[in-house]
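Bug: token stream looks shifted between consecutive jobs. Job 1:
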Amino acid sequence: MRVRLDRFEIQRLFRMTQIAPPVPLATKLSLELEQPAAPYEGDGDTDTLELAPLPVRLATLVSILLPFAGLIIAVVLLWGVAFNWVYLAMFLGGYLLTGLGITVGFHRYFTHKSFEAPRAVQATLGALGSMAVEGPLLTWAATHRLHHQHSDRDADPHSPHTHGEGFTGFVKGLVHSHFGWLFMKEPENLAKYAPDLARDPLVRFLDRTFVWWMLLGLVLPAVVGGLVTMSWAGVGLGFLWGGLARVFFVHHVTWSVNSVCHLWGSRPFRSHDHSRNNALFGILAFGEGWHNNHHAFPASARHGLRAWQFDLSYLVIRALGLVGLAWDIRVPTADRQKAKLRAARAE
């Protein structure tokens, strides 16, 4: 699943900007730091969800089941004999690096432009995010912007709230929002949500080379495991723990922000959707679980807006800022936060 960006598509996007300069969606979202979002009223280009072609569905099924199978194999192999600190370190290290590649890179930098960074940092974050195996950068960013534009409405690609009433509707919505949406056909108008990114040569390179970064993220822990243990068993276990098992956990934690964080948790801020703060995924997803905070202030680099709301991604961004590798770090003012808190209490 890719945003098709051949030269004709790029030329079309440039012609669109020349005829009627659109405001990039990232800019539209960032304006919510200064003004409340308008209520959703629908538009004329809502896409109807339909099944993707069979090869796409099969590839998606493999991407979901293969990491799980790798985890089961790893557990069986480690039973009393095949587990040690080397594989634990590769699993946790890979989870941390690729998870931050998604949260700090794909999400907060590329999708929402919540801070600025030099090209080397952008490239590193983009490569690490690609190793998380959640799809090419352009598709990921455009889909997330589409989600914000239509959050918990019919055109939202992964809402749990648009699948009917009662227990059956709840289960359908939960499954769809967690991973079922990955089997759906890509919206035909998806490219319009990331014209700014499509014009960036680095983004296009990272998007075009996604498969190679994905493979590197799987091969590298296998090589490290083999070199540390000097054995073929180390190669296999490194691939399973640092590769497949790590991908499995990153996937399900990320997907839980789409599903769990639109179903369970608190809603302190006014937002025109069902986004919720969930403390468990605030920790596991490196701050992404403070989801109501994020939907209230999409362009904020900080999602954990309270001192007790642990936000590892923001701490990383602040650390980058301290050494000059990040700047223009955006956080909503105290007055803006209070205004949305009052609006939420009044509803």
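Job 2, same session, no restart:
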Amino acid sequence: MRAAGTAEPNPLVGCVIERGGEVLGIGHHHRFGGLHAEREALANCTDRGLSPRGATAHVTLEPCCHTGKQPPCTEALIAAGIARVVYARPDPGELSGGGAKILREAGIDVVLDESDPVARGLSEPFVQQLDTGRPWVIAKWAQTVDGRIATRTGQSQWISGELSRGRVHRLRARVDAILTGLGTVIADDPMLTARGVRRVRRTATRVVVDHHLDTPLNCRLVTSARETPSLIACDSAMASSELTTAKRAALADRGVEVMGVPGGREGLHHIDLAQLLKQLSARGCSTVMVEAGPGMLGSLFEANLVDEAWVYVAPLLLGDEQAPGAARGRAVPALEGGRPLRLVHTRRLGDDVELWYRRGG
């Protein structure tokens, strides 16, 4: 997990080599183009003066068997004399998958062990992008104890505390894009950049869903577009209409890119959000963070497009039924219609609580 933000679009992978319970070497895939986890762990054995021959390699993803920016990990494991390989998840890649079969043919005992959700979950974003063509979507919001993300007048700064906001900035520093809606731009005029972070691993493109190209030219996302990439996703017709020629030219002059997206169902957001995500993926985007209001979040949850959620619960209760919740726009007459989430981790941040969820069953 230490490589989040540097390994993508490759998967996050870890490897431990052991014999009889003694750890001989450990490794992980640090960065895109660098050594894979298995070769890193084998090198760690050598650095420690220990031989991996006859040992077991535990890997979070099936070892690859093709040559990309690195040679096949299957070759390295076979050459090192590894006797047994235990892996947590098959590699679905058309080129990279199939390593287990090659290892077995070489006489290595190979075991698929899917019992650990943490080991399996590590490569889940990579697997999903291969399966669906969509990037991994992380929704983030701060809320009161009674689930409100702002007051009835729209005030939301700041519900969460300084430590929570610092965590959000670190998350921004390792994603490819930050998605928001026009309503949030108008209400909060956010920058959506990673600030006060020791190491910015990726500079995220700010993406605004704006059907009619109504984003104000003087908002901070536009005026800072020369320094930090900004993209407006609008209806395909608006992206080529004569009615928006002047606005598109003004945005382009300020460094803002306009991207047309096919229209979706009628509602608050008029573009097809699934198609938007696929278009972002085609541009090399592996991870998208969503910092938006309840309309956008509701639309994403309704389309079942949220893969992960980071929720910051502050020690504050509003008790105001007109204060907005995290998501809206869904009709759910029964509990069975809710979107299930699986709690992965909790952390206390001062007086706040950070809840990390992933898509449920």
